[in-house]
Amino acid sequence: MTDEEYQKTQDEIITIATKIEKLDLTSFLGCISKADTLGPILDPTTYRDAYENLRGIEKMAQLLVSIKEYVPEFRQTVFGTLIREVEKDGFIYTSAHTGRWSGNAKSAQAMRKDKDESDS
After folding, report:
1. Residues near 24 by beta carbon (within 8 Å), at least 6 away in sequence
2. What are the residue boundaries of the structural domains of the chain, listed by start?
3. Which of 5, 11, 68, 104 has the maximum number of C-beta atoms within 10 A of its C-beta?
């Protein structure tokens, strides 16, 4: 795996975790449960035709519930360690998950002033 492929995969994992976090999986699984209850009564043919698809979607949603439960820890761990600041020569340099240092340095004095203003 090249560095570029590694970076792309890591970025995709972060994107997927962010998207999963926004999903209302409990309500979604509730809708599937309702379909399982009413489908055979209201439209048995359609329910029978869609049954396998519904089971596959339900299983994936259940797996995503487990992943979603881990997302807050993932966010804290990953974002807490992937973004660093280093003060050098009176400037704050920021490194994101790419490991490359930003060229957008801000003076340490200005950063402290911003922090002091947001704290008050």
Report:
1. none
2. 3-82, 84-119
3. 68
